[in-house]
Amino acid sequence: MMRWPWGWSGIGLACVLAGLAETACALDWIEVSPDRKGFVQRPSGRAFVPWGVNYDHDEQGRLLEDYWDTEWSKVESDFAEIQALGANVVRIHLQVGRFLTGPETANQPALHRLAQLLQLAERLGLYLDLTGLGCYHKQDVPEWYDALSESARWNAQAFFWKAVAECCAGSPAVFCYDLMNEPVVPGGRRNPGDWLGPPFAGKHFVQFIVLNQGDRPRTEIARQWIAHLVDAIRQVDPRHLVTVGLVDWSLDRPGLTSGFVPEKTTEKLDFLCVHLYPESGKLAEAHRTLRGFSVGKPVVVEETFPLKCSPRELAAFIRDADADAAGWISFYWGRTPDELRQSTKLADAILLEWLEWFAERGRQLSRHP
User: Fold this and answer.
1) Helix, strand counts (H, E) of the chain
2) Could you say which architecture CATH assigns to the domain 5-367?
3) Where do the Glycoside hydrolase family domain residues begin and end (predicted)?
4) Residue 125 has what DSSP assignment?
């Protein structure tokens, strides 16, 4: 079989499809603004404020790759619903086991489907935050992947990003590449193959980038890992923005830390992302945490939701902290406000209240970004 550059087979078709999609819409490209506080659209020069949702699973808890081949019409309708909510960004979580079949072998059908997702986003005027290297369902993580050494795993991760970035390089619908959701550098040594953090609601969102710190500073490990993956992306895509989704305990403070201290690890990133869930009665503390991620680059709150506070409190927090965030990304799981109104469950009532405010805020931003 013909082998394409950088060693994988059949990626060319997916990339051609993405290139064709570029001509089918008038989306601007997104860049960091000259003052490095936000984003701007090119060539129009209009300000761009990310106001989006995580589309991390559907109402049944399924990951996108679990149904995008057999239920593509559902993906199309969900994206249309997201657009109707006033969002301009959709965060997609790509699972490593669905895009790699080996350390240097990409899954061509998955890349083909990703190219179709880009086309869909362009038709609807949506931008994608492409978060990669997911291992959310532990049972779906390939055994070969967990058995790799640290350096081999990093190289496989770089190969993943080179494949994805080559596929997406020609599309303006990419807002950014997020290298990994909530990476952590452990202090000390972990057991062989123990790459994942504890599950939350059945999914492993936290991932360790090494198993043995050795005598290396944790921040230096994080810095080198980011550089390794960014360099792989830049070989095939010099334009799209690159970031990483950090836990809020990444700041250099007493207690638990991730090793990804912003001022020591993020020099090669275009902007920063933090995942922030304010607690009731502690909104000022959450605001101080957000400010801690300001290191001379835009900061996007890439995950937020009324998980530990009321929708009203979260709305107040966003209004108060807006000057310190370049954008906000919440969640959408495939149930519209109209569907939620038919429910008698308290959780659905909370979600409905939040989505109604989210949609109204989105309409305001579309008028006055």
Assistant:
1) 13, 15
2) Alpha-Beta Barrel (3.20)
3) 71-281
4) T
- CA dihedral sign, ordered 278, 279, 281, 284: negative
How many angstroms separate the CA atoms of 133 and 240, rounded? 18
pLDDT at 12: 42
Query: What are the residues facing 328 on neighbouring strands?
Result: 51, 301
* 274 DSSP β-pair partners: 246, 301
Least confident of 154-163, 238-247, 359-368: 359-368
pTM of the complete model: 0.92
| Angle made by CA atoms 354, 357, 358, in degrees to the nearest 5 | 80
Cβ pair 279, 309 in contact under 8 A: yes
Give the integer Cα–Cα distance in Å for 301 and 324.
10
* pLDDT tens track for 121-144: 999 999 999 999 999 999 999 999
What is the reported pLDDT for 149?
97
Domain boundaries, the chain: 5-367
Collapse the DSSP code of 133 into the 3-class scheme (helix H, G, I; strand E, B; otherwise coil) and give the result.
strand
CA distance 313 to 85: 20
Residues shown for the chain: 369
Exposure string for 247-264, b = 16+ CB within 10 A, e = fewer: bbebbeeeeebbbbbbeb
d(CA 177, CA 240): 7
Q: Which tokens is 65 given?
A: 């790759």
Segment holding 76, helix H or strand E: helix 72-84
Q: Which residues 6+ apart lie within 8 Å of 120 measured at CB?
A: 75, 76, 79
Three-class SS state of 289: helix
What is the Rg, in whole angstroms, of the alpha carbon atoms belonging to the chain?
A: 20
